Amino acid sequence: MIRPVLARRERVLPAVQAFAFLVGIVAALALGLILLWTSGHNPAEVYERMFDSAFMGTDSLSRTLERATPLALTGLSVAVAGSMGLWNIGAEGQMMAGAIVATGVAMMADGLSGPLLIALMIVAGIAGGMVLMLGPALARSHLRVSEIITTLMLVYVAIRVVEWLETGPWKDPDSFGFAVIEPVPEQAALPGLFGRANIGMLIALGLLIVFWLAVSRTAWGYELRLAGSSPDTARYAGVSLRRKILTALLLSGGIAGLAGAVQLTGSAARLDSGLSNGYGFAGIIVAALALMRPSGVAVVAFVFGAVQVGGQSIQTLGVSSAISDILQGMILFGALVAAVLFNYRIRWIGPAVESSGDEPEEPEEPEPAEDAA
Amino acid sequence: MSEAALIGLFVATVQFGTLVFLAALGELIAERAGVLNLGVEGMMAMGAVSGFMVGLETGSPWAAFFAAAAVGALVGGLHALVSVVLGADQVVSGLALTIGGLGLAAYVGRNVVGERPETLFTDLGIAGLADIPWIGEIFFDQPPVVYLTVLLGLAVWFVLARTRLGLAVRAAGESAPTTDTAGHSVMALRSGAVMVGGAFAGAAGSFLSLYMAPGWVEGMVAGRGWIAVALVIFGAWRPGRLALGALLFGFTLALQPRLQSFDIELLGVEVNRISPALLGILPFVLTVAVLVIISWRYRHRPSPAPAALGLPYRREER
Amino acid sequence: MASSDADHAVWLRGIEKRFPGVIACAGADLRVRPGTIHALLGENGAGKTTMVNVLAGVYRPDGGEVWVNGERRFFQSPADAIAAGVGMVYQEFRLVPTLTVAENIVLGSAPRLLRSAEIEERVAELSAAYGMAADPTRPVWQLSMGERQRVEILKALWRNASVLVMDEPTAVLTPGEAAELGAALRAMADDGRSIIYISHKLDQVVAFCDEATVLRQGKTVATVDDLQDVDLTSLAEMMVGSTEGGYVERPPAMEAGPEVLSLQGVSALNDRGLPALTDINMTVHSHEIVGIVGVSGNGQKELAEVINGLRRPTQGQVKVKQQDVTDASPGDRYLLGLAYVPEDRLGVGLAPKMSVVDNSIVRSYRLQRRGLMLVMAKCVEFCQGLVERFGVRTGRLNDPIAGLSGGNLQRLLLGRELAEQPAVLVAAQPTRGLDVQGVAAIQSHLVAQRAEGVGVLLISEDLDELLALSDRLLVMYEGRVVSELAPDVTPRSVIGEAMAGQVRA
Q1: Across the interface, which of B167, B177, B300 has its CB nearest the CB of C107?
Q2: Nearest CB neighbour to B163, from listed C19, C94, C112
Q3: Mean model confidence pLDDT for chain B
Q4: C440 to chain A, minimum CA–CA distance in Å?
Q5: Phi-psi region of A196 (alpha: psi -120 to 50; beta: other; left: phi over 0)
């Protein structure tokens, strides 16, 4: 009987992960092909439309970048926590919290000039995300409560708060009875770059670079990596784990809150319960595929932005946009499987040595022993 | 507040409790074997949509229920393949299951939104008992899934505590090498536990779409899968405490849509003037609070969590 | 099957086993007669553990044959080996701490339905039959190491194992418990079972065992049919290939310098919140090696952690160079001159997944800063310095450190700790698991540090090492220092009694 076993390679190389990501995309497209085909669509036509709407022409590209911006920010948010070995599953909610506080600031200070107001709203967004993260962060750092469940639960809290604000306290008096919040002041719109892309994209890019520098080139980042990679070693080096957990989670929440403020000022114009639009959850996939590396976050966010823009565009062909959710989940699954397979050699093993007769064979000359120490 | 409303509240408490208990029981099995599965939400959505569609097609609620369980097991099998057999990160794999499962459920169910099958689960008035005032209506006039879930709870407790299989599952969750060298296949135990857990979650999903909110709409699971994951911690990985927790959460879930009709005052606030959106926060805030309280109580003791929870195992590693 | 083959309980023939980058067994043989206790000897890395793991079905050999009780076997899993009558007692016990003794014993061979009372009764009968007391209803985490070992043996007996493999069984036992184990093993051999006994403690091997097989670099280099015919020295020679590479020469006596480390009335709790250290008073002076003797689990780990700031004492004071550091962080203590080689090299001392460079600056990264930034060039330079000075054999400095061998890990770790000329060095199990050259290198560094004026606190399970290197010995038992002994004039029997808590007035 011959059967496979997995033997692990020494190290996960970024190149291997990049290849796994490609395999994940191919696998997801293949599954999507089957889905589309069996439900009576022409896969070639659908995929062509997706590709064109995401990449062909500056307008398409700008839409992809517009979507990639919040994905990069939430991906970065998850990656900051992830580099400490923590999971921020609640970026979706922190994004909302950021948008809520930013909206509140805009309502109170709508007389301010554009740049000042935008700056204030962004700071407010960061604060909002941090506030929503404060409970889970403290519970994790001081009581070892799993941050996975607590951050996630607060997503629903943040969304319900927005729904409450819509129907009650912040309801727009000029909305003819519709339950909507009034739009943010006009001067608070983030300056555009080209097409639908705006400055938010540069903010995301800048933050990714800052984070990369901070993690790989500063003593703070070294402590963060040490604490994430081997907590006992970090303690021994004199790093306060509690403080590191707290700062990593609060930063993570702050960045997700910033994503909310950027989304509000850049694309959304007004706060509603659909503002976070699944970006926070997709950010988890982005960060996981990127192995928590900033460069990877940028690439994956761009690809996912394209998948989402493509998913929207095919609705005109009568195809459900749920396809883009399936594709995103499948890319992650495909990449997970591929990364494991690339990182583990499969060895086929059978019974030790097949004996030809009753008499055991003479063992072959053994290979020279290496230093096995 | 009328008597009927109060009874309605408790009837709904039992039903919501059943919903989260069934899903949480599945997660408990997987976690006792050492596998964290964050895909409950996705498995429930897949169970809800597939159960509903089979119900539409066959008109048989039981066929729908078991089909949903089979789909749940299949989706759970994907998590088992990726995280147990291939040893990928359980958190990532589980999240992929939730995100992908929600998307796939939405896609598969896009054409049945708004439809209603003709026969659904009906309440099972247990002869003699259902007529007892209050108690009868709350406990003895419920759909059969409620009673099946109680039996499943007892069965899970019995298997875990009193059988060779249960001992092996518990051991796999505490120390994989020990279980392996004792002669049990950790991979089989864990994969099996995850798939059974998936079946429970899928079945719970169909209870939602076939009985509690008949029909299918995207997002109808609405975080109940996550509450199930949290419930396992609340129940300290024990079926009995899980049942208590499920009733508590069932109560808050049942309370939320009803509170507005209650004409009472709490701390100077008239309850029925609070926005339903704000009341919807209740179960989620309660979950966080409960987790914090439990961790506080265990701060000086070893956690009751299975020691090997979340750790992949591969034998020939060196 | 040839008839002469029937006369063995176990025959491992030409076993080959390769791991990535390592050949663990290169055609090794092991043949055990029924009803005997057979010692399997060899240095670390000689392939002993790999051999027995092949026999236990944990590893599948790349070549060679496994015969048990006259039958050729192809084990695909531990279950197959168990069914064939092979029972294995691992060095790191394979017990589930939260389960009871009875549940652990029946795991894998339990009846379909568990009736606790019935099982507990049968387990009690079994333990009475072999004189190995164990309360079947207690959870395993409450048991001492010696009791856990009994549970492991009972587990094998429960499955009626005809071959029992013991990997380093006495490492966790007091001398008295070890003697009891020897008697129990003899009773089992007289019952017709065969026992494979892996140990480094040659005096025990000679006392307990009938025959021996010696492995070196994955091959069988000698077999001994009757251990009564050989002496300890020749056994040791067979293991290492020559008598060289034993313990370093005992350092010449030195005048102890000023006090560099002192503990006054220190008490601390363990991870479970139970007392681990009680009223510890000790001092270490410059130019001195103080050895901590004791069976593991008597507070040594907690002692090292309290001294280095990884565990808070509930009472008492820790002073380094006369300064009170009781509330100082581990990093601040290091900067004051307290260096520490922890027992867990990978996981505490070193971060396995981080690079060699990252690991070499764990203690000194605060010194390699310019503003907020870490100066990478300085870090690399520092790391290269360590690698050269301490003879660390390593691949690329940016590769994860987990790829290094045990000896090289320890050289880098020790080098890193000594880089800033400390006043005190706490070394916990610094040579455990190292090969002969590794042991010699680490020990000579310790002796050299003593000569330079460092005060060394050496915590070890290796009594020979402690006797060879220490100027003074402190014996720990149940969290207390029960006696102070002079290594060169104290008979081993007295040390053994002190380790078991029996202190002569």
Answers
A1: B167
A2: C112
A3: 88
A4: 14
A5: alpha
Residue B266 scores a pLDDT above 70? no
Buried b (16+ CB within 10 A) or exposed e, C357-394: bbbbbbbbbbebeeeeebeeebbbebbeebbeebebeb
DSSP C359-383: HHTTTTGGGGEETTEE-HHHHHHHH
Whether C79 has its CB under 8 Å from any CB of chain B: the answer is yes
Mean pLDDT of B177-183: 88
Residue C432: Cβ-neighbour burial (10 angstroms; 0-12, 13-18, 19+): middle
Q: CATH classification of C3-240, choosing from 3.90.1300.10, 3.40.50.300, 3.30.70.360, 3.50.50.60?
A: 3.40.50.300
The answer to whether residue C1 scores a pLDDT higher than 50 is: no
How far apart are alpha carbons A288 and A269 in whole angstroms? 30
| Per-residue pLDDT, B284 | 86
Q: Render pLDDT for B278-302 as a digit per residue (tens, 0 to 9).
A: 777 888 888 888 888 888 887 777 7
ipTM of the complex in this document: 0.84
CATH number corresponding to B3-118+136-297: 1.10.3470
Nearest one of A268, A246, A262, A224 to A126, comparing CA atoms: A262
Question: Distance from CA of residue C443 to its chain's centroid?
Answer: 17
Q: Does B228 touch chain A (CB under 8 A)?
A: no
Q: CA B172 to CA B35: how far, in whole Å? A: 9
Nearest to A282 by CA among A110, A92, A135: A92
Interface probe for A, chosen from B41, B85, B95 (most Cβ of A below 10 Å), is: B95
Q: Looking at residue A363, what is its pLDDT? A: 34
Give the separation between CA C466 and CA C27, rounded to whole angstroms. Answer: 36
pLDDT of C111? 86
Distance CA B221, CA B42 (A): 9
CB < 8 Å from A in window 199-238 of C? 217-219
How many beta carbons lie within 10 A of that of residue C258, not counting itself? 12
Coil, strand or helix: which one is A369?
A: coil
The string of pLDDT tens digits covering residues C244-285 is 445 566 677 788 889 999 999 999 998 777 889 999 999 999
Strands B141-142, B265-266: parallel, antiparallel or unpaired by DSSP? unpaired
pLDDT tens for A221-262 read 999 999 998 999 999 898 989 999 999 999 999 999 999 999
Q: Is residue A4 very low, low, confident or very high in pLDDT (cuts 50, 70, 90)?
A: low
Domain ranges of chain B: 3-118+136-297
Q: Which of residues 155-174 of C touch B (CB under 8 A)?
A: 155
CA distances from C491 to C179, C463, C498 (A): 18, 12, 11
d(CA A264, CA A188): 9
Residue among C26, C65, C362 whose CB faces A366 most closely: C26
Q: B110-144, pLDDT tens digit by residue?
A: 888 888 877 777 777 777 777 787 787 788 788 99
- Inter-chain contact C64–A369, Cβ cutoff 8 Å? no
- Among all chains, which residue has been given the structure tokens 């975080």? B223
Classify domain C259-352+405-499 by CATH number: 3.40.50.300
In chain C, which residues fall in CATH 3.40.50.300?
3-240, 259-352+405-499
Q: Cβ–Cβ of C77/B183 closer than 8 Å?
A: yes
Which residue ranges form the domains of chain A, and what is each CATH number? 42-318 (1.10.3470)
Cβ distance C96 to B184 less than 8 Å, yes or no, reads: no
- Would residue C83 be called left, alpha or beta, if left means φ above 0 and alpha means ψ between -120 and 50 degrees? alpha
Confidence grade of residue B317 (pLDDT, cut at 50, 70, 90): very low
